[in-house]
Amino acid sequence: MALLLRFVLLCGVADFTRSLSITTPEQMIEKAKGETAYLPCKFTLSPEDQGPLDIEWLLSPADNQKVDQVIILYSGDKIYDDYYQDLKGRVHFTSNDLKSGDASINVTNLRLSDIGTYQCKVKKAPGVGNKKIQLTVLVKPSGIRCYVDGSEEIGNDFKLKCEPKEGSLPLQYEWQKLSNSQKTPPSWSTDMTSPVISIKNASTEYSGTYSCTVTNRVGSDQCQLRLNVVPPSNRAGTIAGAVVGILLALVLIGLIVFCCRKKRREEKYEKEVHHDIREDVPPPKSRTSTARSYIGSNHSSLGSMSPSNMEGYSKTQYNQVPSEDFERTPQSPTLPPAKFKYAYKTDDVTVV
User: Fold this and answer.
1) Class of 21-138 per CATH?
2) What Å distances lie between residue 26 and 22, 23, 31, CA to CA?
């Protein structure tokens, strides 16, 4: 509110005194992103203007939610250009002698955020003047991509497309055929200024090199494509080949799976057999070794016995057959006294 009141007062003083005046008319300037914008502001003084010279540039951003910002100031024979961080280092007075009547500025390396209304205010008491300049920053068309959308075969329908990666609207398109002496079909006349050319029932005469130029108010860019309309391919053969290839792949996969499973079963069987053989089970003793040990122990006992006990002992012991599981040392049995009525030979000794 205070700024508006100040503006009204300044305008009133300027109108009243009719001394200081800005000769540059209000205007609109369009520039491309990255370029430098020249914002003119030239003024004249009268003999009545004796006060100190003050020059102030303000920016009203395109975003209405932001307040006006002072971007550069000349006061007391000094320049102050660090008021607005977004434009710091990018805004400069064009003249080295501002008292000569030139308060113009340059804004370098333009950005989209620089869009807005710039106001030049000049004061040299009692004279005051101001002018506004509308700055628009546009983006040149760039990154143009040309391509064919569809199958380039005789009799087919497809499209030629031209797409810019970036570029400020409005955009204008222009298609041209660069190769061959053949002209473009008359049906294309309406599409030569659009981003898409629709081709119906294509023929070989459409083949060639095409260019697409995209233009806006601040620049242009171009791309090219090669269109080659060919006879239809053998789709049946292609499909059959694809089916055969898939079947062969399935058979190969089946064989691999079968071999893997077979190998796993064999490895599992070998592990089980190996595990059974290595079971820690003691082997059985043979009948011969058991009988020999049994008889040997009895012979040793027999030598210590009297002849009177031999008959009963022999009848008792040699009628018994030792078993395979017999592991304990046999004890000498208690034999009843008996008389030998026949001769018995054992270990080269004859007993009567």
Assistant:
1) mainly beta
2) 10, 9, 16
